[in-house]
Design a protein that fits this description.
By secondary structure, the chain is mostly loops. It has one helix and two strands. It starts with 58 loop residues before the first strand and ends with a helix. Pfam families: zf-like.
Length: 94
Amino acid sequence: MVGENGDMSDAPSGENYRFFNHSVCEFYPCHDMPAEDLNCLFCFCPLYRLGEDCGGNFTYVTGAGGARIKDCSACTVPHRRENYDYIIGRLASR
């Protein structure tokens, strides 16, 4: 949490908040990657709204009426343990 003066003085001292694995989810595993590395914290990618600038591995598919729809099903950027700082940094810069 951000303190009154804008610093992170009230932030948790541990690192457990950076990773969450929801192994009982009905969609688990949603990506082909080792379970111990599958971070479910950002299950719905907060970078999706950045469109092509998200930094992930996405494609476009054609939907009804010819609309282009961003397909992120092959992307594991928000699900990798080591990408927590990347996600938070990108959100903070917007």
